[in-house]
Amino acid sequence: MIIDLERFIDEEKKYWTELETILDKLDRDPFKKMNLSEIKRFHYLYQRTSSDLARVMGFSAETEIRRYLESLVGHAYAEVHELREKPHRFSPLHWFFQAFPQTFRQHLRAFVLALVITAFGFAIGGIAITIDREAKRVILPFSHLQIDPSKRVAYEEKAGATKDRLKGKKATFSAFLMTHNTRVSLFTFAMGFTWGIGTVLLLFYNGIILGATALDFVHAGQSTFLLGWLLPHGAIEIPAILVAGQAGLILAGALIGWGRRISLKKRLRTVASELVTLLCGLAVMLIFAGIVEAFFSQYHEPVIPYDAKIIFGVSELIALILFFGLSGKSKEKLVAKD
Amino acid sequence: MLQRTNTLHIKTPEGITFALPLAGPVARFLAWIVDFACIFVIMTAINMAIQVTQVVSFDFARAASIISYFIVSIGYGILCEWYYKGQTFGKRLMSVRVMDIQGLRLQFSQIVIRNLLRFIDSLPVCYLVGGLSCLLSPKSQRLGDLAANTIVTREPKISRPDLEQLLTHKYNSLRDHPHLVARLRHHTSPHEANMALQALLRRDELDPSARVELFEQIATHFKKIIPFPQEVVDGITDEQFVRNVIDALVQASGTPRKR
Questions:
Q1: Is the overall model pTM greater than 0.80, yes or no?
Q2: Of A86, A252, B164, B220, whose CA is between 20 and 30 Å from A190?
Q3: Could you state, in order of their start, the residue ranges of all structural domains in chain A?
Q4: Distance (Å, rounded) from C-alpha A323 to C-alpha A309?
Q5: Among chain B residues, CA nearest to A291
Q6: Average pLDDT over residues A86-109
């Protein structure tokens, strides 16, 4: 019990100030590493301040001192008892070529599920447009997709041959595509918080639009145009949206926690960094897809032959499959052996 | 049923419990308005800088503007909370801070997730979903906070009360009974002591009748906690009695002052 509060404060204040100084330094430099003697001193100060807090708690008058010590102990507690890995200096290459594909493989089932949902939507959209060609007025919300595909192809090829329609607009168009697609993808992920219902609906709806558009062009005999138009950017953009769906489903899985006997907090804590890795990865993919769509995909024959565009798109798709399938795998094996 | 609380208590392995006062929806909304204004100012400054490049390429300038807005609107919260350890400019101004729900160090992934889930929290307008979640969740968390395991706490301004203006170092009859003073200190909670202290600090703001009534209630309360002998409390007003109680609690030097 404290007999003389003023004396107690006078005696202990220097230790509190010292602890506060160390915490300020740690705040300013998250990568700071203390040597052994500094760690020992820090731990001593933490314990001493904790003990002071316990003593002040038994004393009725000093709520302000108690609050101050609580904030100090709370802050130091975070540093002393944090068991998770301290943030290390970020290496973009290591992250992109190892962490991102490894995380993708780790949650492959969620990606497959996102793919199946989109494919189901694709089938429904395709069937709907096959049965009733007029359905596209309801299914496809974009005016440029409402036109008859043959007329559109004829128009695009003729207009593209005479002048560059995107001249002076390419960068703006590309920026719009990147930001729009990233926003849609992040929204698809965020909807995972609705126990995955929102993510599933968005993936399904995307699939319907894709299926209806594709079959509309196929029925009009414009399959080559469709592949040449969609593949160069779609080979990256569509998988990126599926990765967003994958992240949303992982979030939903953590919320639901099928058969996992760990608390919700722990489940969410476990997947947090993996979700961020997937989201940052898909943002990089969408930046690439945005550039390709504005500067390459919108140019058709006779400006760029369809074969060249299709080969480019297929190459991208193969490269992407190899990237997700193999990148960072050797390091993964080494870690598994250890 | 889950009960709402305005304080999160964390018990350390050393057996010490500390409390983190939680920020309410109003303080958080005001912080968001300040942050919104900050984003507006940053974007205006960036757009002014970009306008210079319009001379070279209008297309590039517009693209830069679109991308900048996207990065600033999403990245502002993430970068500020990362750099300022859970605070944006708005949160600093409102003295609130994002913290890990277990009092541990805030991780970058937690910051990213809570900020990206603003997409849902901001639905349908003006953070209605987030606001409702904040009001309904036991720890005032919006959906982003729930997913990221974070809470938003108030940062109390640490200032010692001006005791000198209250405690005139005059004779305090309670101090003639040190054993009763010790019992008083033992049985008085910090909340009760603070309530009496605040009443004394704000006494001049009260109407005369309300002042008399308030100090009568407080004095009665303390007299119930420790019944001092009649000669100690006789002849002094209730306000003086409360002043003596606070003096005994705060200036606990152990040596009673002489008459």
A1: no
A2: A86
A3: 5-81, 95-337
A4: 21
A5: B63
A6: 87
